[in-house]
Amino acid sequence: MALETTYIQEKLSSKFGNKVLNFEMQRDIFSFEATSDIIHEVIKTLKEDESLNFHFLTDLAGIHFPDNDDEHQFSVVYQLHNWIENVRIRVRTYLPENPEIQTITDLFLCSNWMEREAWDFYGINFIGHPQLKRILNMDEMVSHPMRKEFPLEDSGRTDKDDRFFGRTVANK
């Protein structure tokens, strides 16, 4: 029997109630949201429930939405795969301005580097992570460069020529 999206939705809704919401298909991937306080338990259920079998974490990514309200400034998106039925699923949770969320390294060892990358670039604190430190940026950095308030270019650069960036310089 194929794993149907309606079954996944009913199973999660019966266990977590209104803390799982906005179920929909997005580009052939079944997607939904879960509140940040239960996200660990939702991921654990998706993995350990024998009728669901989402045993593979494909991706974990952070996102910054500076124009959203204070409670939805950041998002963590988890993409899981059930290899038995060849079904993919996307789970999103929103976080406030000072983002903190429980780690899932106890469920998926591969999330270690993915969570470190999300912390490195967005400043999302994964509570309980075994070694949350910089992974791609220099240890000396004090900011998180993928946040939207981080400047795109160094305004002090003198070696750049605007023509190479697709900008034209007005004649004086």
UniProtKB/TrEMBL annotation:
Molecular function terms in GO for this entry? Answer: NADH dehydrogenase (ubiquinone) activity; oxidoreductase activity, acting on NAD(P)H; quinone binding
Q: Which SUPFAM superfamilies match?
A: Nqo5-like
Q: Which reaction does it catalyse?
A: a quinone + NADH + 5 H(+)(in) = a quinol + NAD(+) + 4 H(+)(out)
Q: What class of enzyme is it?
A: translocase
Sorted alphabetically, which PROSITE patterns does this protein's record hold? Answer: COMPLEX1_30K (PS00542)
Q: What is its EC number?
A: 7.1.1.-
Pfam families given in the database record: Complex1_30kDa
Where does the record place the region Disordered?
150-172
Q: Mind listing the UniProt keywords for this protein, alphabetically?
A: NAD, Quinone, Translocase, Transport
Locations of Basic and acidic residues compositional bias?
Answer: 150-165
Domain named NADH:ubiquinone oxidoreductase 30kDa subunit is located at: 35-154
Q: Which family does it belong to?
A: Belongs to the complex I 30 kDa subunit family.
Q: What does this protein do?
A: NDH-1 shuttles electrons from NADH, via FMN and iron-sulfur (Fe-S) centers, to quinones in the respiratory chain.
Q: What is this protein called?
A: NADH-quinone oxidoreductase
Q: Which organism is it from?
A: Flavobacterium capsici
